């Protein structure tokens, strides 16, 4: 099996793929709105600290488990386990992550489908197809099913090709596009009336709020969601990294990209909201907080774009293409979790496994689309508020308590020979053992 397994062909390829998984709707949509409703720059500050001090160590645990195991999440966890009880525990954690990834994909693909239909709408309008354009932005059952299926089709198309030709190649194409588009949009919004006020709201910290428990909890939850922790994805991506690479720096680079893109997205979204306000669009909800969630993306921003006339069509196109790309590089990683498991454990050809699993998840997505009013929220809460934190915590427990310290060290040492004397090795084992599980447990407990 070892020989025929795929892997990332280059460091850059891995960074783009892992950053692609991490950077998603959570960064471009979740982070800015959480920032806006949690004291602006105070939230950014706390987020930065927590991302590096807590999410990064947990992220490292998952990458290390994967690279050591050189296999899907379940096999990797079981390779570390030394007795039957631990092997069972490893199965539960690994398989739980895989199910969690599949559940996230089932609702993520619906939202991503909306992003795609909103991206095509300005093109249809430019071409004079007004009726079709209206259909694209009206939330009908047919449109939802068609675009969810279309997005899932794209995800399946990439994952069928495997690690190097699929995930790596497409991440290397899409991620630079995403960063370029984001910067262009920020520059454009910069030039509009009202953006200055938005920058102030975003960048002036209300320091008094830094230690508010709710703010800390939201920031930590957001950091874990953003690094795709607790879903088996980073274990499997870790297993595709060559042994000669330095995981400590690679992990830090991915975290840095994830955090920076979230920060950049805030520079786009919050000023854009204040520009919308300058044009007469309501951006505050009744309770005085900034509008967030789907109303922001599908009401406030489109209102802003349509107020810009013809230019607005191009801006809208750019923005929703950006959202679609961010979603696609995340969704491929979600599908890779279950696919790698079936391919390696059940000896199934990759193409067949990808199509079957992709279609099975699509069936669940369609079920959610039909029962949108309650099921979307239910599946999202189940997977991201319960599944992800619990499994991420168990991964830390696994790495901290079950995995032998000397084995961990010899794994990290590959590609990083001096690590034993580094700050990382002084701090990280202790962190994953005590601090990470406790902090995640606290967040989880609070979110209940
Ligand atoms: N990190 C992604 C984002 O910010 C979302 C995400 C959560 C995810 N869990 C995941 C992506 C698991 C891939 C796999 O939007």
Explain what this protein looks like in three dimensions.
It is found in: Membrane. This protein has 18 helices and no strands. By secondary structure, it is an all-alpha fold. It has a single domain (11-276, 303-447), classed as Hydantoin permease (Orthogonal Bundle), CATH 1.10.4160.10. It starts with 10 loop residues before the first helix and ends with a helix. 52% of the residues are buried. The structure holds tryptophan (TRP). Residues 21-22, 24-27, 101, 104, 225-226, 228, 231, 233, 330, 333-334 line the site of tryptophan (TRP).
Question: What is the fourth-level CATH superfamily?
Answer: Hydantoin permease
> Which topology does CATH recognise?
Hydantoin permease
Determine the strand fraction and express it as a percent band: under 5%
CATH architecture assignment: Orthogonal Bundle
Count of extended strands: 0
Basic shape: globular
H/E element order: HHHHHHHHHHHHHHHHHH
- Which residues sit in consecutive blocks of at least 5 with pLDDT less than 50? none
Helix content: over 70%
- Total domain units: 1
Tally of DSSP helical segments: 18
Q: Tell me the Rg in angstroms.
A: 21 Å
Bound molecules: tryptophan
Sheet of most strands: none
Computed structural class: mainly alpha
The separation of the N and C termini measures 42 Å
The first-level CATH class name: Mainly Alpha
Transmembrane segments: 12-32, 44-68, 89-116, 145-163, 175-195, 215-242, 254-276, 312-335, 355-374, 386-403, 423-445
Pfam families: SNF
Membrane topology: Multi-pass membrane protein
InterPro entries: Na/ntran_symport, SNS_sf, YocR/YhdH-like
């Amino acid at each position: 099996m070892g020989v025929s397994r795929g892997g990332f062909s280059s460091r850059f390829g891995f960074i783009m793929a892992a950053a692609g998984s991490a950077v998603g709707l959570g960064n471009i949509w979740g982070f800015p709105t959480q920032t806006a409703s949690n004291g602006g720059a105070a939230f950014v500050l706390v987020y930065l600290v927590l991302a590096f001090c807590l999410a990064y160590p947990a992220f490292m645990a998952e990458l290390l488990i994967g690279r050591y195991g050189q296999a899907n999440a379940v096999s990797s966890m079981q390779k570390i386990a030394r007795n039957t009880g631990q092997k069972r525990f490893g199965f539960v954690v690994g398989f739980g992550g895989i199910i969690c990834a599949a559940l996230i994909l089932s609702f993520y693909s619906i939202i991503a489908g909306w992003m795609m239909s909103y991206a095509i709408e300005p093109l249809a309008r430019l071409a004079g197809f007004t009726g079709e354009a209206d259909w694209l932005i009206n939330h009908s059952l047919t449109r939802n099913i068609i675009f969810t299926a279309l997005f899932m089709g794209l995800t399946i198309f990439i994952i069928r090709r495997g690690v190097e030709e699929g995930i790596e190649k497409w991440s290397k194409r899409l991620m630079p596009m995403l960063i370029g588009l984001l910067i262009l949009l920020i520059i454009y919004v910069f030039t509009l009336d009202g953006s200055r006020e938005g920058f102030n709201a975003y960048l002036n910290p209300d320091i008094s709020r830094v230690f508010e428990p709710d703010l800390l909890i939201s920031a930590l939850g957001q950091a874990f969601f953003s690094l795709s922790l607790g879903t088996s994805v980073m274990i499997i991506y870790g297993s595709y990294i060559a042994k000669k690479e330095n995981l400590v720096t690679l992990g830090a680079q991915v975290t840095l990209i994830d955090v920076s893109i979230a920060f950049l997205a805030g520079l786009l979204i919050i000023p854009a909201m204040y520009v919308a306000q300058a044009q007469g669009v309501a951006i505050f909800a009744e309770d005085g907080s900034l509008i967030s969630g789907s109303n922001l993306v599908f009401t406030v921003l489109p209102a802003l774009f349509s107020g810009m006339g013809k230019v607005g069509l191009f801006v809208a196109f750019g923005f929703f293409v950006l959202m679609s790309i961010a979603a696609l590089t995340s969704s491929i990683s979600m599908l890779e979790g279950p696919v790698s498991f079936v391919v390696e454990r059940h000896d199934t050809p990759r193409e067949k496994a990808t199509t079957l699993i992709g279609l099975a998840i699509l069936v669940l997505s369609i079920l959610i689309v039909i029962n949108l009013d309650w099921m979307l929220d239910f599946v999202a809460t189940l997977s991201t508020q319960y599944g992800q934190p619990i499994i991420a915590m168990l991964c830390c427990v696994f790495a901290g308590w079950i995995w032998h310290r000397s084995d961990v060290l010899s794994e990290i040492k590959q590609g990083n020979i001096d690590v034993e004397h580094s700050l990382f090795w002084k701090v990280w084992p202790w962190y994953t053992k005590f601090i990470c599980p406790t902090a995640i447990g606290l967040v989880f407990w609070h979110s209940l």
